[in-house]
Amino acid sequence: MKMPLPRRLAVRAFTAFLLAGVSTLAVHAEATTDEEKAAAVKACDLGATSPLDPDGKAPPVHLGELNPTFDMAVTEKLITACRDAALAFPDEQRFAIQLARAMYMDFKSADVVVPTLQRFADNGHVEAQYMMYRSRASKLDPMRNPTEANKMMNYLRNAAEAGHALAIAEMRNLRRFGGLLKRDHMEAIRWAERWADLPSQGPGGEWGHQKEFQEVGKLYAAAMRIFFKEVSPEDKKKAFETIKAMYDAGNSMAVDVYGIALRDGSGVEKQPEAARAVFERGVAAGNSSAAVELARMLISGEGGPRDVKRAIDLLTTKSMHYGPQRAEVIAKLFLPNELVARDPRRVIQAMQDTPGTIEDYITLAGLLQDYQAKVNKTGLIEKLSLAAAVGEPGAGMALAQLKLSQNSDFRDEAGARELLALLARDGDKDARLMLAAAHFSNLDSTSQTRLTSGPMSEADIRAAITEGVAANNPRAFLLQGQLTRKGVLFPQDDEAATKLIVKAAELGNIDAMLMAGKAYDDGLGVPKDPRQRLRFWREAARRGSVQAQEQLASAFTFDFGARVMNLLEGITVPIALYGNGAGRRYGDQTNIMGMQPAMMAMSGMFTGGRISDFPRKAIVAAVMDGFQWAPAGLSEEKLVPLAKILPQDIRADIEKILKAEAGFSGDPQGYFGPDARAALRKWAEAKGPFNGRQQQVAAVAPQANPSPAASSSPSALPAATVSAVRDKAFALVPAAKNDAQRTAAIRQINALARYGDQPARWVIMRNYHQSTLLRAAVTPAELTRYNLDILVSNLAETPKADFEFIFNLTEMYKKDRSKGFAGAFVGAVRDDPRLQDLSALMEIAKHMQFSPGACDAVASAARQLKVSVSNDDGCSEGSLDALIAYAKKAGPANIETKARETAAAEVAKLAQ
Questions:
Q1: How confident is the model at residue 608 (pLDDT cuts 50, 70, 90)?
Q2: Average pLDDT of the chain?
Q3: How far is Cα 879 from Cα 867, in angstroms, rounded to an integer?
Q4: Which of 89, 86, 139 is nearest to 111 (CA)?
Q5: How far are the Cα atoms of 717, 718, 732 from residue 728, in angstroms, in the given order?
Q6: What is the enclosing helix (H) or strand (E) of 341?
């Protein structure tokens, strides 16, 4: 084995290599006299002495201080001085490394010095180790080249452990914020302590910035003890004393930390009012971090009144964009749809303006699955790739899902497989199944599916599916269902495929819900069933799937047969999706023959289809709900083209509302000019977030058994108990031998119906008009509540319920019981939020018009309550709208609730 060269010869070799590189630069003539050489030595030592160099003869100069103004003349003079010193004293290592440092600061020769730095680093030179890390850090890829990444990280670690100031700072930052190392709070504190207790940076004299540098480390060590939950109360208390002393001394960096400690009660008694005052002072001084923390308190109403508007002003002021937590606060404000309307694109923009934590990048990746936007694609991918490689939770999965999404800017199946393979190796079962699925092309389309090359073999894929199915993993059922549909790896079988996909959907997989709905829509392996289709799509939409919302909006126009869809799905959701620019259908900003795809998708929304089934007032309300839900759609560039699609009578009615509620002063003719559009924006801001969505979705979703009110009642019974009593009661009817026994059975069934059991209510509804015994046992008020519940639930298990309703109304009229019906009708509208939807109530009123006396009875009951009745017609749109307004103002009558609670005891007794 060849012996290493003696140190002196090695230095000569390194110096010669560097001098060869210097010859390419425009430098001055070589120093020849002793005076010139001495001057060169002095200039090189003063300008480029390495930190922690045992041979250093002058105070150390850290890398950024070599030429802080980036004046190339300064760099050129330093290179010349160090070249002359190295030529004069070729055996002195310090001149070789100082020359390398000077050349590193010259853009033309930076790469030339790297091999020499590498040799010095391998020989243990601390500054060379730090410089090697710095020169390579931005290019390191621990996923594809772990050996190189580990080597550079070892250089950095060695330099930091030796006491190199900048290496220590880098180690603290990596452990605090992540990067080439996984975040570790306690390690970050340890490195901050090393920062605060920084050793001397060299024998040649004190580093000029040592005290200031140590003060920053001291502040960081105390601040992190304030922030991190892992720190003991005793240590937090000591940290607070340090921060308070710095704050009292006027340290501007301590302001936000001091305020956070007071706000959170970290190391000190909780004092939100005092914290708010601290942040106010920080804002007055231009502290952007204090502005973000004050905004957080204004949003929560902590330490003083809530003021969301001022919080938004603070967060959007350009000079305050540098607060490190700004993007996180904006996301928490504009994503939940609670205090302000949801605005995902505002969050995306904030995350571009102020890059934040790894969690912010994960949130951004999630948003970009649904929203195509101009972002720093390279930066996002690099940040999450690096985080995934070092094991930051959620980073790899977020990026893999983005690479598998329909966002064409990020679609990269090969890249996704690489990330998923990394997660699968660490034991992530979902990642393994996603990786298996990513080996197949066109799984979710009608195109031919092929197995592509990747890290998993066919045997590996089969094993993953088998193990996943055994573990009840929905992804396994979905993948097997998809492959069975295509006849790949499994025999082609649509019926078996749909069963597997439905199983995955019922286990909560959103992609499976979309596919299950499509199967019922197309009749793939199951009979076509619009209700089952909607069941899965609605659940996916409820869970936030934009694709499901798009599917529902598209299906609304063609909902002629079952008529089970509503204006929320057909009007409100599309307008909101358009406003936010979400999904493929509404987010595409390209122009095709002068029109965006979103506008083409919406152009048929108000012409034909189901829209004619709904009263105009309900349509207008649905449109305005869409604007309230997504006020981003009220910008001029979005609102002007959308307004042209709205029918003029709809625009006119919107203007009437704006005239009454938002100060619109024009004539409501539906011209929708600038004044009307400004008033609409003012109206939406005053209304705040659209919170009616969950209630409306619940109102149209297929109901479980028993009805929702029963299952949420304090006296709710186990489903098994109700089912057992129902089976027993239903069996008594055919077994009854006389009217007494039949009446006893009817009473048991009616107890179930009063409790809210819909099968029992349906039996009574179907038989009331043709059974004397039923009519004797069930009151008109009870029958009315049962009928209305069945009608508004609109279940597949209750076919032709509208005919049964008409028959029952007619029978009550014949027996002079219409008054009892009308009173119960008004009570039901008060008690059931589903009946407070004008469209739903109008649909029921259409059936009432076929029954003698029904509409007149409702009109009479309404007049007694001083409810305005249009043209004495209790079934007219105006009368029903007035009745709904009365019901909302009067509040619940609690008739249904009391009946269910009483019945619960009776059903429980029957179960004994």
A1: low
A2: 90
A3: 8
A4: 139
A5: 16, 16, 6
A6: none
Write the DSSP string, 785-852: HHHHHHHHH--TTSTTHHHHHHHHHHHHHHTT-HHHHHHHHHHHHHH-GGGGSHHHHHHHHHHHTTST
* 82/116 Cα distance (integer angstroms): 15
The model's pTM is: 0.85
**Cα distances (angstroms) measured from residue 496 to each of 13, 503, 530, 531, 537:** 74, 11, 20, 21, 21
Closest CA to 270 of 303, 235, 232, 234: 303
pLDDT band at 122 (very low <50, low <70, confident <90, very high): very high
For residue 23, the tally of other CB atoms under 10 A from its CB is: 8
pLDDT at residue 697, rounded to an integer: 41
Averaged pLDDT for residues 190-205: 96
Taking CA atoms, 630 is separated from 344, 362, 545, 678, 689, in Å, by 10, 23, 16, 15, 8
- 453 falls in which pLDDT band (50, 70, 90)? confident
Task: Express each pLDDT in 588-606 by its tens digit.
Answer: 666 555 556 777 777 778 8
H helices present in 561-673, as ranges: 567, 573-580, 583-587, 597-602, 616-629, 636-645, 648-661
Instruction: Look up residue 239 and give its two tokens.
Output: 């940290």
Reduced to 3 states, what is the DSSP secondary structure of residue 735? helix
Residues facing residue 595 across a β-bridge: 592
* C-alpha–C-alpha distance, residues 365 and 361, integer Å: 6
Contact between 682 and 703 (Cβ < 8 Å): no
Q: What pLDDT does 18 receive?
A: 67
Query: Measuring CA to CA, which residue among 521, 467, 911, 542 is closest to residue 726?
Result: 911
Q: How far apart are CA 259 and CA 244, in angstroms?
A: 10
Is residue 753 a contact partner of residue 790, using CB atoms and an 8 Å limit? no
pLDDT tens readout for residues 642-692 = 999 999 999 999 999 999 999 999 999 999 999 999 999 999 999 999 976
Q: Is the peptide bond before 336 cis (omega within 30 degrees of 0)?
A: no
Express each pLDDT in 64-100 by its tens digit.
999 988 899 999 999 999 999 999 998 899 999 999 9
| 882/891 Cα distance (integer angstroms) | 14
Across 47-59, average pLDDT: 95
The DSSP output letter for 276 is H
pLDDT band at 3; cut points 50, 70, 90: very low
Q: Cα-Cα-Cα-Cα dihedral of 444, 446, 450, 455, to 10°? A: -10
- Residue 790: which residues within 8 A CB-CB, separation 6 or more? 758, 761, 762, 765, 798, 801, 805
Per-residue pLDDT of 209-250, as tens digits, reads 999 999 999 999 999 999 999 999 999 999 999 999 999 999
| pLDDT recorded at residue 695 | 41
Question: What does the pLDDT average to over 113-138?
Answer: 93
Closest residue by Cα to residue 120 from 17, 2, 28, 252? 17
Q: Report which of 373, 335, 372, 370 is spatially closest to residue 353, judged by C-alpha positions.
A: 373
Degrees, nearest 5: CA angle 747-748-751: 85
Residue 507 has pLDDT above 90, yes or no: yes
Joined together, the tokens standing for residue 814 give: 């014949």
Q: Using only the alpha carbons of the chain, give its radius of gyration.
A: 37
Instruction: Please enumerate in sequence order all residues whose Cβ is within 8 A of that of 88, keeping only pairs 6 or more positions apart, or say none.
Output: 31, 37, 40, 41
Provide the b/e sequence for 538-571 (b: ≥16 CB within 10 Å): bbbbbeebbbbbbbbbebbbebeeeebbbbbbbb
Amino acid present at 247: Y
C-alpha–C-alpha distance, residues 620 and 567, integer Å: 10
Q: CB 735: neighbour CB atoms within 10 A? A: 9
